[in-house]
Amino acid sequence: MTSFDPLTALLGGALIGLAAALAVLFNGRVAGISGILGGILDLDRANMPWRLAFLIGLVGAGAVMLARPEATIEITGSTPLLIAGGLLVGFGTRLGSGCTSGHGVCGLARGSKRSLVSTAIYMGVAVATLFVVRHVIGG
After folding, report:
1. What is the pLDDT of residues 72-81, one digit of tens each?
2. 105 exposure class (CB count in 10 Å sphere: 0-12, 13-18, 19+)
């Protein structure tokens, strides 16, 4: 995908909202991806089936998209840097007690003040990081 399409963005946002609402409706839990994955890694057997189904759905949807003939993904970044970034994101989600889906999608929809603060912090850090990478480092 090389250009912005408002209709696709609207459809994607609606599907994310629907998934979040269904997770609360059927499981009584928010669709925070870091919490879902954390429960799998902690071997929470009581909630394992739905957590695995959710994770398999995420990975499966990505696999279906990659299987399309027009799908191309080009990774231009340094592999060690990408791995380090992923580890830092994982650390940040534990430190902030949630991730963008848990705080930004579900927490804000529930009116959580903690989620508002968390979302403001990670969005501010994202903007600052983009500025540094594009204008200071020159990436």
Report:
1. 777 788 889 8
2. buried
34 near 98, Cβ under 8 Å? yes
Domain ranges of the chain: 76-139
Confidence check: pLDDT of 1 > 70: no
| Contact (CB, 8 A) for 75 and 82 | yes
Residues 120/126/129/133 CA torsion (nearest 10 deg)? -150
Those residues with Cβ within 8 angstroms of residue 36's Cβ, 6 or more apart along the chain or in another chain: 51, 54, 55
Q: Which residue has the tokens 């997770």?
A: 23
Q: How far apart are CA 131 and CA 12, in angstroms?
A: 26
Angle, helices 6-27 vs 48-67, to 10°: value is 160
E-strand ranges in 6-138 read none
pTM of the full predicted structure? 0.69
